[in-house]
Design a protein that fits this description.
Layout: H1 27-38, H2 48-51, H3 67-95, H4 97-120, H5 124-144, H6 147-153, H7 158-187, E1 193-195, E2 202-205, E3 208-213, E4 216-223, H8 225-230, E5 238-241, H9 249-268, H10 288-293, H11 303-306, H12 310-331, H13 333-341, H14 351-379, H15 381-408, H16 412-444, H17 449-456, H18 458-489, H19 492-499, H20 506-511, H21 517-523, H22 537-555, H23 566-569
Antiparallel strand pairs: 1-5, 2-3, 3-4, 4-5
Helix pairs in contact: 1-7, 1-9, 3-4, 3-5, 3-17, 3-18, 4-5, 4-9, 6-7, 7-9, 7-14, 7-16, 12-16, 12-18, 12-22, 13-14, 14-15, 14-16, 15-16, 15-22, 16-17
Amino acid sequence: MSESHDGLAFLKKERIVAKSGFNRWLVPPASIAIHLCIGSVYAWSIFNPPLVKQIGVVASAADDWTLSSVVWIFSTAIVFLGLAAAIGGKWLEEVGPRMVGVLAAFCWGGGFLIGSLGIAYHQLWLVYLGYGAIGGCGLGLAYVSPVSTLIRWFPDRRGMATGMAIMGFGGGAMIGAPLKTWLLSLFYQAPEYLGSVANVSLITENGRRFAEVAGNKVEVVVASAADMAKVPVPGPEGVYAVGTGDTGAASVFITLGVVYFIIMMIAAFSYRVPAKGWQPEGWTPPTGDESAKKMISDNHVHIDQAIKTPQFYRLWIMLCLNVTAGIGVIGVAKTMMTEIFGSTLPGIVDAGFAATYVLMISVFNMVGRFFWASMSDVIGRKNTYHCFFLLGMLLYVSIPFVATQVSVSPSVMWLVLFYGATMVIFTMYGGGFATIPAYLADVFGTLHVGGIHGRLLTAWSTAGVLGPFAITYLRQQSVDNAISDLAAKVDPAVFLQTFGAGIGQLQSLVEAKTVTIAKLMAVAPPGTLDPTSSLYNSTMYAMAALLVVAFVANKGLKHVEEKHHLENTHPELSEAK
């Protein structure tokens, strides 16, 4: 911002310096409030079912968006989060957290409103622009706005401070998931019911289903009992007219956009920064021996110099691979739970159970941010990341084993093991985010930690593409193979009778969503093993391999060389120490 923008002077850093005697514990609540708002991005998977049924409402119609195209909206938001944080991090050091927080509120709230137009008019690019690009910029700016501020308010507990700052982001889905689920049920409108399959004359053309109603041909979807159990307001199974109902997603976007904007504006105006030279009463900086033991540097590195050090790229690789391993799973968490256990333990894993699972991901993600970041103050940042990578490798490898066992011998024990393994993974995923700002402050000093943290978050952008790409690509490969194998086992006459077309039209039937694994299993010969529980095996092995690389990067991390220190690269700024 140039000096000519006097009208915005009240937002600048100089105007929000705390007066003597200010209680530093008043700052964390504002940080947590903003992060709770933007953390709802982790509950994105709640939107997947309604968005892939926006036209069909009770089941996916031929013109509905696919899961793979919708999942990338979440990825786009994460990409723009990293880009905005990289650019906005340095700007944050100049103008302070209030101005950055206000702009974040406009982007995040406005992104929801633009996204609602995309849903209402079925223009996917508008959802990408609004929620993905503009909303993602709001995510990045809001994410970095409290970090350097809290590190300066809590030099005695850096890990705990960043844990508090970022704890809300992990907990956002804890509030967002049930809130979104409730709003979707509030705004849901069932489509026109035409009758049961037996009472409606159905035609299949190019994979699409049509019904004859009063002499007119109407496109329809055929909803099974399982489909109707997943909608917010259950109804009878049978034939429904396409384009006659409303999932409520557009209205939910409008509501959330307004609510988040108001909360974030109030929180942004609550920010204060400490006066120059301030330190907590009774606190003395750690001795040289203590700093060396926990790899805490007494020196500062300029933001532009930091990206010239090998330490920055080791930390970048560590964050990128840790996030890649977790983010793909979070994006499809609800879907993965129902696919692995929905067919093997249907009495337990229903829609309500899956929704609670998403909620618990948020709880453990949030708790992990505070627990691991605080723990890093005790055992050191490097050892904390060693725990993430070694334990993470074992847990990712255990998931395919559990999925295989539950398909052979369905038992609640395997569900408990899966639940426990994934929850520990999500604590470490969140803990990685919460601990990295303190790790950066240890390695590069506190002078430019906000800007350096912003640039490091480009690793999150990269992971936001790699994670969902890996999990959707590898899963789709497994789905395609499973459908081909199952279709080959089904009696051709039964196939023709069920889907209104021969097995030779399998590809078009799959593309029109008329044929799925679940529908093939319904007509497969008795004793056929349901392949849905093993759809994610190859993905989990790939994620474990990434953590091996991340462990090596962390193992070799050392102190920054003296030539990179501020007094040697920017002597004119060295007095800022």
